[in-house]
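Handout, section B. The chain below has 203 residues.
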Amino acid sequence: MSHEIYTTDALVLSSYQKGETASVLALFTKDFGLVYAHADGLRKMESKLRPALQNHSYAQVSLVRGREVWRVVNAQEKDYLSGVRADSGKRSVFVQTLALIKRFLGQEEPHTELFNDTVLAFEFLNALPLKKEELSRFELLLVLRILSSLGYLKEDLETRHESIPFKSVLGFSRWERENLDSLLGKEKECILAVNESFQASGL
């Protein structure tokens, strides 16, 4: 019996070993949201899947859905984020963001807009040199947008944190340096808003 093959873009959030050579990958996919997929033979050095499916990589993956699990049958790494990987500060933000996404995503709930925004955010980060304080504002801005997209920003934040320009923070579709400037001087209140949302989520 043949299985339908689904091809989609994916961010590899994490992985763990399954047996001697296989791995189970937590994939944030463009079309299916968070899925856990088995990759047979991934830990073998000669595996064709290995280069594309390292933790925190970005790849086009082909998946089949079995009775109980997804399986990766093909993967091609995208030429992406070389500038992020080469910068320890940017790389740290990238890894922490993927951990946050994994924490808040439900399994197999598509979040295509969030996926696209996350990819665009890191393309922006990859392309531009940012000062330390700009990188901090980038991280805050992205976290706010992730929480909003997933419905975890508390409804009364806008009235209780009036100095945060929520419309400009959450409403743009293109990442630009000016977006970071919208949080200038409001970082402490943004951190408070994020922490309140974390606590309210119970996650």
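Note. The radius of gyration is 18 Å. Compare this with the example in section A.
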